[in-house]
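Example (one chain per record):
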Amino acid sequence: MTLFHAADPDADGDNLVRVSAEALIALRGAGEKLSLRALRIKAQQSGGYLSRFKGRGMEFDEARLYQAGDDVRTLDWRVTARTGALHTKLFREERERTVLVWVDMRPAMFFATRGAFKSVVAARAAALIGWSANRQGDRLGGLVFSAAMHHELRPKRGKSAVLSLLRQLSQASRWQSHYNEREPDADMALARLRRVAKPGSLIFLCSDFRKLGAQAESHLAQLARHNDVVLFHIYDPLEVELPRRGVYRVAWGERSSLFSGDDQRTQSGYQRHFREHCEALKQLCRFPGIHYLSCATDADLLQTLQAGLGKRR
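Predicted structure:
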């Protein structure tokens, strides 16, 4: 009988179960190799397709009467309601774009059977994205949240914005207590992100997307109306398929249960659950502006991001 649990720092290395500001700063060179200005993003859906990013940041300029061919997503409903005639918003291009990272540090992210904790992968991905945004002259901001706290970072330009993000990601209190039976859903964090995001932003959500709340789809659809949203799904290989042979004990907190890898019904049900979770995330890509990328905890993170985002022509 084998006990499955989160990776042991002594066995697998401290850098696999937590991050330090120094380690995230050291990712600068790798992050600068990552282009966020790719013309196309490879959306991982069944029958995969390529969809364009909306591009640089856009700032509201004025409203005018709706004309045939205008994007219905830019309708100005307040002016329309006030005047009784359809109006659409006009935007002017900003000199730089805003890049936002939304990083999930809830208890379920402190887990891995191979590679690094999901939370470590999320922090590293955010650091790579931050360094890339800095090199390209974009503003960087975002939201780092756990079961107990949310910390917003207002978009700013320059190295100081990246360092502020890295400090939040490596804050010691985030890595000290991981288990919480009452893990909250992600709705509040998505609602707060909507208040930070401005039209034309490129938004990366780094999470395993467990416990998306009842309002999650609505929040994501609203974010995608004027932004590009990338669902960066982090998963552990054990979530894809259980071991095939033997009886195993799974522990969480003070509770535990047994399962048999020889039970075909358990295997099929487990695999179906993961497929359904992935399909539910991919279904969100039916909204224009939402894209899906996935990364295993033992994958090459930089290579995954480069391959998923595509290379600039």
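Caption: Residues 264-283 form the longest helix (20 residues).
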